[in-house]
Amino acid sequence: MPCQAICHGTLPPLYSEDEAGWIVRGYNIGAGDIDVTLKPWKAFSRAARVTLAEDEISSLPVASDGSVSFTARGHEIVTVKFGKD
Known about the structure:
Elements: E1 6-8, E2 14-15, E3 21-28, E4 34-38, E5 46-50, E6 56-60, E7 68-72, E8 77-83
Antiparallel strand pairs: 1-3, 2-3, 3-8, 4-7, 5-6, 5-8
């Protein structure tokens, strides 16, 4: 995906420190808020926004196609952890 407003910085995907999930990290390069949808390559039953230290901030609803959506504030670094229950 071309980087227009959010760039991801985890290639290849990173596994969480506890090895119980997959971490996706990106940042909003713009000053304004943007809506983001991520769809991982495989199904995960759980997703959450986490801190850089991987402490949970809030859970994210996982759609039927496995995607999650959230808002990234201007210049915000966003970390999402996907996992299984």
